[in-house]
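Sequence of Phytanoyl-CoA dioxygenase family protein (Piscinibacterium candidicorallinum).
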Amino acid sequence: MTPLDIDSPYPLTAEQVAKFRRDGFIKLKDVLSDEVLDTFGSEITRLTIDLNTEQRPIEERSTYDKAFLQVMNLWEQSPLVGRFVMGQRLARIAAELLEVSGVRLYHDQSLYKEPGGGITPAHADQYYWPLASDRTVTAWIPLQPVPINMGPLGFYARSQSVSFGRDLGISDESEEKITENMQRHGFEFVSGSFELGEVSFHLGWTFHKAGANVSTQARSVMTIIYMDADMRLVPALNPVQVNDRDQWCPGAREGDVINTRKNPVVWSRA
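Predicted 3D structure, token representation.
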């Protein structure tokens, strides 16, 4: 991979695909170069800070709002970030892990956990998404190394088939109830630091969470959410899915493939 190459194939093995299928997540090393992360990461972090609307001190926020500052669809705000989000390397990994012939963008989201930022409670992302199948995956891309004290993402291995907790959004309740259920049934929680260039991928129904940032440095992370290129829209099950439908799939119709201007095919097998 040349320094700013974000399109070349990553050498994913059959064993890694099988591990992802089994565990519902995987962490991959050396996915992106230092130069890529420096060039694109600087713009992502700058935009996140500039476009963030949360001005309250951390101690005055809810548990959800203490977890991170978040800004969505940065790809629409900057040609440079757009180039990153449409990169073929990450999208091809997503498609190969999902075992589908191509992936569309659902949306991107930057997650900036400030020094002193709280935990990210246990949850499954797909609670928020009005999508017809489980062929969704989030790439979690740290823009700097993430040691334990900065709150790296951790995953409950093999939890993607668990129905309990799928109706809970990020909250104190989700942290308490999902964590207790995972522990009661013996699901292993896998957590650890992220090296620079390491990227994780997790299914939409894999339960996960992150610790507090007790360091003095912000944890800046970019996420890209991919879905099967043939994904169809389904009726929203809750108010947050109504919001997601209107925000990220404008003009899509229930039962149809989500082929809107905001949901381009990022990679497909020739």
